[in-house]
Each structure stands twice: as C-alpha cells, then as structure tokens.
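## tool: complex_structure
## caller: assistant
## args:
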Amino acid sequence: MLFRQGSVSVGVFQLVSGRLRLMRSTPGGADVPMHTVRPGELFAEASLFSSHYHCDAVALDNCEARLYPKAAVLRHFADRPEALWAFTQELAHRLQNVRTRLEIKQIRSATERVLQYLRLMSDSKGVWQRPGPLKHLAEDIGLTHEALYRALAKLEREGWIHRSGAEIRLCPP
Amino acid sequence: MLFRQGSVSVGVFQLVSGRLRLMRSTPGGADVPMHTVRPGELFAEASLFSSHYHCDAVALDNCEARLYPKAAVLRHFADRPEALWAFTQELAHRLQNVRTRLEIKQIRSATERVLQYLRLMSDSKGVWQRPGPLKHLAEDIGLTHEALYRALAKLEREGWIHRSGAEIRLCPP
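## result:
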C-alpha cells in the first residue's frame, strides 16, 4: 500500500517499475478499481489540489515509484509559470488520449478497432511505434491478446499494415 | 463544420447546446470519431498549445458554441496564475473521470457495472445526482438504454439503491 484514501497527501508520484492500482473504498465497504498505473506514468496529480488522497494506491507486484513532494512542485510551478504550462499541456494531451481510447472501444469489430487505433495514434507519416509490450495495446483497446494477434495478422495479410519489430506502418490506400 | 483538422486554431470552445463530434481524418482517407462533446463541455483545449487544430469538429445537430479566443485566454492565464491553476485542476479532474469510465467498462455484468459507477461517482453521503439524461449514463458506461433500465430496476428491487427523481441513493449495507 503506497497511500490510503483519506490520508494526508505528500505529493505526486511517478511509477518507475512494476504495476500499481488506484482503488476507491466505497461507503458500502467495496473496493472499486479506478485505474491501473504503468511504468513512466504520473499519478496522484489530484493531490496537488487537495490535502488528502481520494483513493488507495496498491502495488500489484514489486514497484518502484518516484515521489515529487507537493511543496517542491508547487514552489517550482509558482517560480516558473512555463513549468506549470508544460504540466497543463501534458494533462490536456493525456485527456485526449484517454477519450480516444473510450471512443475506440465503441467499435465492435476487433480488426476495425485495431485499424482505427493505429490511424489515430500514428504519426503524420502513418507510423506507430509501440511504446510498450503488445499486451498493453490489447488492454488499451479492450481486446484479449489472442484477438489482437489475429486482428494484426489479418490487417497485414489484407495489406492494411506492415509490421517490422516495434513499428507498425499503415499502408497507403 | 465548426473547424477543420489542419486549420489555424482560433481558440477554445464550450458547447452550449446540441451535440458535436470530434473526428480525425486519417492518411488513408477515413474519418475516425474521437469524442462526442456534450453541452457544458469545453473542447479544443489542445489548440492553446498548438497553432493548428488536430481534428475536425462536426455538429451532429443544431449546435450553439461559445468561443474563448486564444490570445485572450493566454493573456488571462499570464495575468492571473490562479486562473491557470484552476484550469489545470479542471483538466486533472476530467482525466480522473474519464479513466474511471474506462475502468468501469471492464466489468462484464451490467448490474455490477452500474453499481460500481454509482459508488465511484456518488458523494460522501452515497448520493448521486444525475447531471443529464439517463441515456448519457448509458453511453458513459457502455450499456444500451434497455440494459441500464433493467440493471437499475434490479438494483432497486434487491435493495442496493433507492431512486427518487434525478437522485439515486446507495443503500447502506
């Protein structure tokens, strides 16, 4: 347990390694998962705005996390407005990404879902660099590993994509 | 069409009435929906950080939207750091909400999904005030209207919730 719902917030964390889950205990006594944090991700940003944590942070396996103490972060933002601006930009960017994942999940066909995800996430040249293991992509778009592998194989067979290593390239129409 | 992908960004919008969809045109010529905007919602916040829009904004029916011109917003944030701070807080809050909706969608049982959503979104007294029509809740948690109605009826029958008007109260265990 990294922190508990209701305890005094000490700052923002970044997960370095491992997997960690944010959970909320409800009045009825149930523990409801809110979000699974992955390496590299910032979490508990809300603690900057609040004196207490709004959820539990529970390590799912051995985790390493970096703490950015609240007072230091607030001072840094106060002294350097451009740092606050960069943080705001990062939040706006992540909001966009999560919304896109929600929208993608409305698509019923696995093949179509994977293709649309790649279209949205690829760069201007139509290239998508896999940032982590393929199972993260499966989780992000709500498919089993097997369904994802089948969809990728089908897309490549039908000439929609070309795969090499951690790179997927959308083929021109 | 309110704005087009690639056109020069003029500012941030808030939808007053109607429904509007953010879409991205892909190199392959497909239009991929990214997000459906509802009344009250801010959109195109990314335009504050970028000279061009990254997507199309297409009205789905008659819409009214309020424009916050970019230069005015940036000046306001520069003059009043507390306004930028409030904006950052709003983004952090929305990110949390969208993540929670993604997590909720992993739950297969419709009844359980509705109950967990209410647990996460209700206030400290276990009360959830419906902010809009019930069909928005259905969309948010990925259920058909019918499945949502059935789940709510079942939860009430089994004594988990109590409904009156736009308010749903979680019953103590």
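## assistant note: Chain B touches chain A through 47 residues (CB under 8 Å). The mean pLDDT of chain B is 89. Handing back to user.
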